[in-house]
């Protein structure tokens, strides 16, 4: 039960928080804790070190909103029902309309530019909601922060918060972290000038703006220079979030993962002689799942000796299904997988095993089993799958990795690097992966795992906090 929030010394703000509530049929609320770098980072800061910590997040569904209404909550978490009172629909407009349909599309360069974007009245209405939603966060943070507290604002959902908060509470140390890529300047400037300015000024309201790689940090700086003439004293930092080796190694050896491993082997078939190409993604436009399937089909077409000797295990988990483009994309993934299966499949061999229901234990089982992991996003802030697979892999795994993923900066040397638009090139990379001698594969996996775990989540978080407080 959290009704009052003591003045916190360290605050995190993000759209999606560490816990969500589901409203059961009997009227009870059940809480589900999420994972991820921020959760382990925040739990790593002992109170003795930093004082009380508070996570401010948005109520995302009916369960969350009901929890806010009933005053149900976890210590250290403050959930904001942005849509309460006269604000009905504000969160949806801000989250689906601006954050996921505009800012996500700009930073991942996803627009089909002859038709989109077209920034008109609908966009302007949603933009007003985005401002309201950011304002709600800024107000809540201003209320809950102790004098001189450190506030770590996360991601494109909350780009205006640092500037708004700075005005309310000049005493605070404010950081902003972008978990996405940052758009190249010409692409970013598709946004209306006033909106582009507001977004940059919003982030520059922070003492420090940080990114996952130097490439995204440089792109942000270039945008600031082009649009505003400079970064006006805000420090720019880079923190390359790594995989959590201890957690992954322990978790991937548990019984539920072993069970799924057995089930997956059965689905792959071939008595253990078949090779497995694995991908695990949210069904997300930027993940480039369709071109990955096209590349696999090209491999089967051009290297017929691999038919019946390889299976593509593809997990494409539901994401942002409120948006029609995401639903359509999910349907294209499903249709193409079916097409490949009817084109090439024979009795006893299904070329593509596609799962679309989220299951973390099964993902870990697939990581263990993979001979080749395909991570081919069009653009990606980091991509943690690329970092997790080498850590968990049983016998070494070739990583086929897009040069447009942030992770490529750290993993490029030991991965097979691809241009994500080059389907034929990706097919060749998959082939190279299947052909790589086991010894070389194991050596590379060892080096990949070391690079992937260089900055574990807790350290990643503490580094940011210290840099902000310095
Ligand atoms: C990306 C973003 C995160 C976001 C996640 C899942 O990684 O950087 O901020 O939470 O995608 O997206 P969702 O819309 O489901 O929160």
In short:
The chain is of the alpha/beta class and 470 residues long.
Q: Major sheet, described briefly?
A: 7 strands, parallel
Q: Mean of residue pLDDT?
A: 95
SS strand fraction = 15-25%
Q: How many runs of DSSP E, i.e. beta strands? A: 15
Seen as an oligomer or otherwise, the chain set is single chain
Q: Determine the structural class based on helices, strands and strand pairing.
A: alpha/beta
Roughly how many Å apart are the termini? 34 Å
Unique bound compounds: 6-O-phosphono-alpha-D-glucopyranose
Give the strand order, joined by hyphens, for the main sheet. Answer: 5-4-1-6-7-8-9
Shape: globular
Secondary structure layout plus pairing:
Layout: E1 8-14, E2 19-23, E3 29-33, H1 37-44, H2 47-50, E4 53-58, H3 62-70, E5 77-80, H4 90-107, H5 121-144, E6 145-154, H6 161-168, E7 173-177, H7 185-188, H8 193-204, E8 208-211, H9 214-228, E9 235-238, H10 245-251, H11 255-268, E10 275-282, H12 289-302, E11 310-317, H13 324-344, E12 352-355, H14 360-369, E13 372-375, H15 385-392, E14 398-402, H16 408-411, E15 416-418, H17 423-435, H18 438-452, H19 457-469
Parallel strand pairs: 1-4, 1-6, 4-5, 6-7, 7-8, 8-9, 10-11, 10-13, 11-12, 13-14, 14-15
Antiparallel strand pairs: 2-3
Helix pairs in contact: 1-19, 4-5, 5-6, 6-8, 8-9, 11-14, 12-13, 12-17, 15-18
Structural commentary:
It holds the Pfam family Glyco_transf_20. It comes from Streptomyces rectiviolaceus. This is Trehalose-6-phosphate synthase. Belongs to the glycosyltransferase 20 family. The protein has 470 residues and is an alpha/beta fold. The protein contains 19 helices and 15 strands. The strands form three sheets. A seven-stranded parallel beta sheet has the order 5-4-1-6-7-8-9, with helices on both faces. Strands 12-11-10-13-14-15 form a six-stranded parallel beta sheet, with helices on both faces. A two-stranded antiparallel ribbon has the order 2-3. α9 links the parallel β8 and β9 (235-238). α1 crosses α19 (457-469) and α11 packs across α14 (360-369). It starts with 7 loop residues before the first strand and ends with a helix. The model has no long low-confidence stretch (mean pLDDT 95). 6-O-phosphono-alpha-D-glucopyranose (G6P) binds next to loops.
